[in-house]
Each structure stands twice: as structure tokens, then as C-alpha cells.
Automatic annotation (TrEMBL):
GO annotation terms (biological process): trehalose catabolic process
UniProt superkingdom: Bacteria
Gene3D superfamilies, per database record: Glycosidases, Golgi alpha-mannosidase II, Oligo-1,6-glucosidase, Domain 2
SUPFAM superfamilies xrefs: (Trans)glycosidases (SSF51445), Glycosyl hydrolase domain (SSF51011)
Protein's recorded name: Alpha,alpha-phosphotrehalase
Gene: treA_2
EC number(s) given by UniProt: 3.2.1.93
Pfam families with a match to the protein in the record: Alpha-amylase (PF00128), SusG_C (PF23915)
Cellular component aspect of the GO annotation: cytoplasm
Domain called Glycosyl hydrolase family 13 catalytic: residue spans: 11-413
Entry keyword set: Glycosidase, Hydrolase
GO molecular function: alpha,alpha-phosphotrehalase activity; alpha-amylase activity
Amino acid sequence: MKDFRTSCVYQIYPKSFKDSNGDGIGDLRGIIEKLDYLKFLGIDYIWLTPFYVSPQNDNGYDVADYKAIDSRFGTMEDLEELIEKAKAKDINIMLDLVFNHTSTEHIWFKKAIDGDKKYKDYYIFKKGREKGIPPTNWESKFGGSAWEYVEKFDEYYLHLFDKTQADLNWDNQEVRNEIIDIIKFWMSKGIKGFRLDVINLISKPRVFEDDNLGDGRRFYTDGENIHKYLKEVSENTFSLDEEIITVGEMSSTTIDHCIKYSNPKEKELSMVFNFHHLKADYADGDKWSLKDLDFMELKDILNKWQIGMEKGNGWNAVFWCNHDQPRVVSRYGNDSEYHKESAKMLATTIHLMRGTPYIYQGEEFGMINAYFNDIDKYRDVESINYYNILKDRGLSKDEVMNIIKARSRDNGRTPIQWDSTDNAGFTTGTPWIPLSNKYKDINVEKDIKDPNSILYHYKKLIELRKRYKVISHGSYEPLLEDNTKVFAYKRVLDNEELLVICNFYSSFERIILEEKNNNFNCILSNYKNVDFSNKIELKPYESLVFYSNKNI
């Protein structure tokens, strides 16, 4: 049985991974084609973002049928073959479950709109405060009001995301029963992992009121019944199979809640995602306001979460990238002058922490942001909405495009760059979204031929986690906390110690370590291995990993 502490999860956004039939959209058969590559990389789980029937207003996170596969991605037989062939290579499949909301195209919502009281109670409908004024002033995560008016009822329904994504009423036992039934359906197919989308938003308040301090999120984030509902779902599904791992996506959460979500004694989830470290380049906490990386803020957040979760016996999912984030090498690294060095350094930083590492497709060979100059090349509903919102605020087109280029979710959604042929080997047709113009320089085929590539660095990191128990089970101690350029930490387990030292800048940096252990050996570097010394001059974006075992 796999231990999620020694495992690595690889996230696939099927639409952009590999197209097997030339329609320009990645599909399940495309994933089957690339299983040998994923086995070579050494990953343990493939997390698939939604491939269910969907109008695709939010790239599949608007689910219209939880038990059916959208024909553009393939068939149920294709999925069953993928599960079987992946298992033969000792790889398990993790599905993405979107249970905060459904598409307004879902049969439940259609029946609700038709006036069926049972299904209307599956959602959250409220009267306005007065004519033309929504029940509260809450804002949608995608901009605008979180309420949509339905004239037929003279009521509004809640949608924390797009207006085509109506929030489910988890206070309704029948809704929770439906969700348990859906999970059991996928468990019966042999699915061994589940990622729960924005799951800490499902428990809404008993009283809906205006938020005079913000956008409403404080009223529904980590709500009063959240732990009760997760325990109920887990008891009736995940807990029935000890091989299953679960990860919850937690929006604007806290360490205390995440300990409860992931401490094994609570029997809720295996681990959690939090996103605080990916806001260290937000001006005043606003995604759509640019600022340079606040490195000391990043260090502080990562250290606090590592220490806090360990203290409470919680477990982190550690990551830089996903389908909702820009490419980290373009964001916190240097994707031009020090592309290879900074990509490896960032990988080293995150993979050797306490927690289960997640790789997002393309990250393992250094894919960079799209840098599209024209809004017409973007497909993401959030990006298009904010293009118009920012223009309405008075920003120039150039200012708006600079923000979109840095922040758009489409940065992580351009097709995977398999080789340097037309369309990067992704499709023989026209890709659903344009490719990055750097695909001839940055691709899998090129990295596989180079033993010093970013790809081989990721492969080595995955191997190290399985080889050294101090990485998967050791405690975490921050080092050089006051250093404004270098992120460093120590992992300790019994007689084993691991030192991780990462320079986040293009300058040379001198450091002095308290450790004077002559038994340390360099087991990984993004330049070349060096002998241990407590006085080191780090090269631009250099990362060094030293290991010691007092028993050897």
C-alpha cells in the first residue's frame, strides 16, 4: 500500500495534456499514451481535473453530470482503461470532486428552476432586501455580485463563483446523501484518490448578512458545520478503503482549521492545500494588483505552515503550481537568464519540505507563462471578466494586459510542450488555446536528452523522498530566518539530518551556517555538488542539499 508521505502527485489538466484524436482538446486516451513518461518520472498518483459533462464555462469546474464523462474527453471505457493501465504501472488515479456548486445545466438545478421544491432546496435561494437589491453585498470570486436574480421566484440564488455555478445547500441532508452516492460510484471504479475543490466553503451561515469589512468570505469560509460534514462524508466513503487518499483545497483558511481537516485522529482528510504562500506578490492582498515578490513574507508563511501543521499533526500538500496559478518559474524564479537554475531551485525548496509534493503538468520541465499580448488569446472566464473590470477602473489597455499576463489562470493551461514539432506534439489539429511561443526551446523531448535538465532534477527529487525517511517523516526547522535572499531549512529524524539551502535571487550570496557537521554530503545541487562547509557563497539561484546520518 502506498504511503502518501513518501508519494508524489502529478496533476493533469486533461484539456491541455495530450490530444489523441486531432480535435485540439486533450483527452483521456492522450493520457494513456503518456503513462510510460509518467512512470519514468516516478510519480505515484495522477490527479485529473474535471472531465465530467460540463458547459465548460469554468473549464469543467461547472459540473452538469457527476457520473458521466464529457465526450470531448472520451468515454467511461477510456477512463476504466486508464485506471487499469496506470495501476499496472503502480500509479493510482485521483479525481477532482466539485461539491461546493453545480453547473446551472445540472438536472438538479434545472428541476429547481422548474419549481420542484425538493431540488430548489438543493440550492440557496433568498429574497432580495428590497426590489433590485440582492440578499447581501457578497462578491463573487470571479467579480460582481455573488447573487443572481430569478424573476420567476422573485428570488436570488447564491453563486460564489460564476453565475452558471450555483452553490449547493449542504445543510440539506439529501444533498449530502447525493454526494456520498457520487463518491461511492467512483470508488467502485477503482479510484484511489480524491481532491475536493474549495471544500472549506460548503458550510454557509445560518443568517445571511452584509459584510461591511470585505467581500463576504469571512461568513462562509471554514463555516460552523464544515468539520461535521466532512466527517460524515468520510465515514461513509473514504474511510471504507484504507488505500484512498484525499486532499482538500482550502480557500483563505487557517492553520488551526487545516490541522483539524488533516490530523488522522479527526478522520476527515489526508492533507490540505492552502494558498497563502502564493499571495506574496499580491499588492494589499489583491490578486489583480502587481508587486514584486515579498520574499520575507514568503519565507514567513512557508515556515509558519510547516511548523504549525507539524505541531498539530496535520499534513500539507506542498506545491507551487496548478491549473489556477501562473507558472512559478515566471513568478518567483527567473524564466529568461536563469531559467534552468531557478526552476530547479524552486523544485528543491518545495519537494524536500514536510508534506506531500504536487507537480503540475509542465512544471517538471520548466514551462513558463504564456505572455499573450492580446486578450482574444485568453479563454479563462476570470481573466476576461477582470480585463473588463480593470479597464472600467480606468487602467490603460497596456496596464491591464501586463496584469493579465502575470495573473491569468491560462498561464497554467497552455498545451503541454512534448517536442519541437508543430503544436509541440500536443495535437495534429488546432489547439483550443494557443501554445507558448517558447515550445521549441522548452519541451519534454529536449529535457529527456539532457541528464542535467530540469526534468531529471524533478525525477531525482521524487527518488530522494522515497530513499530518505528524513524527507517523508522528519521534523522541520527553519534556518537563516533573517536572511533576505536565502531560504533554508533543516529536516531531522533520529540520526538523520538534511540541510536545504536555496538562493532566490540572481546575486551571489554568502551565508554562514551554525552546523559544523563534517559528515554532511551534498546529495543534490542545481550547479554541481560541493563539499560541505558552514561558510558558503551561493551562486545565482543556487540550491544545495546536504545529508548526514550519524549511524553511517
